[in-house]
């Protein structure tokens, strides 16, 4: 079985990974490379996947297969799963499970702000992207997008 997380950044994914490592025999990873952020996320969510991005997605599948236990178990806590690699994972594996991890949007916002997160756009599903079902009337700032797209 393959277990992934659907969540925002700054929501406890590292903690959950450590719990899985401690309490299960499932190989457990936190934001395993490739992360599928930035350009990869943009292309996947705008239905314009380049050869380079397809390579990154294929590499993700190869690494999941390589890092899975002999029965095929794997756990990854990565907030980009639901934003970038969900379709690739579902196309390549039959036994996918997803844990929805919720954190108050204001707590996410303040956690990001406290870290003065400069590369935040790389990790955010942006409201103007083609395949994003939730849209805004005008482009948003980074912090508006974090609050609007809390996952």
Automatic annotation (TrEMBL):
<dbReference type="GO" id="GO:0008146">
    <property type="term" value="F:sulfotransferase activity"/>
</dbReference>
<dbReference type="InterPro" id="IPR027417">
    <property type="entry name" value="P-loop_NTPase"/>
</dbReference>
<feature type="domain" description="Sulfotransferase">
    <location>
        <begin position="2"/>
        <end position="117"/>
    </location>
</feature>
<dbReference type="InterPro" id="IPR000863">
    <property type="entry name" value="Sulfotransferase_dom"/>
</dbReference>
<dbReference type="Pfam" id="PF00685">
    <property type="entry name" value="Sulfotransfer_1"/>
</dbReference>
<protein>
    <recommendedName>
        <fullName>Sulfotransferase domain-containing protein</fullName>
    </recommendedName>
</protein>
């Amino acid at each position: 079985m393959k277990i992934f997380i659907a969540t925002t950044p700054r929501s406890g994914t590292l903690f959950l990974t450590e719990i899985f490592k401690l309490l299960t025999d499932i190989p457990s990873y936190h934001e395993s490379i490739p992360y599928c952020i930035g350009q990869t996320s943009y292309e996947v969510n705008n239905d314009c996947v380049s050869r380079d991005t397809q390579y990154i997605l294929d590499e993700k599948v190869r690494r999941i297969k390589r890092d899975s236990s002999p029965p095929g178990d794997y756990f990854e806590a990565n907030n980009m799963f639901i934003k970038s690699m969900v379709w690739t994972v579902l196309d390549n594996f039959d036994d996918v499970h997803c844990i929805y991890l919720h954190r108050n949007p204001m707590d996410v916002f303040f956690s990001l702000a406290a870290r003065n997160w400069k590369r935040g756009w790389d990790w955010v599903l942006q409201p103007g992207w083609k395949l994003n079902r939730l849209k805004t009337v005008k482009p948003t700032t980074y912090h508006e997008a974090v609050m609007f797209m809390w996952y």
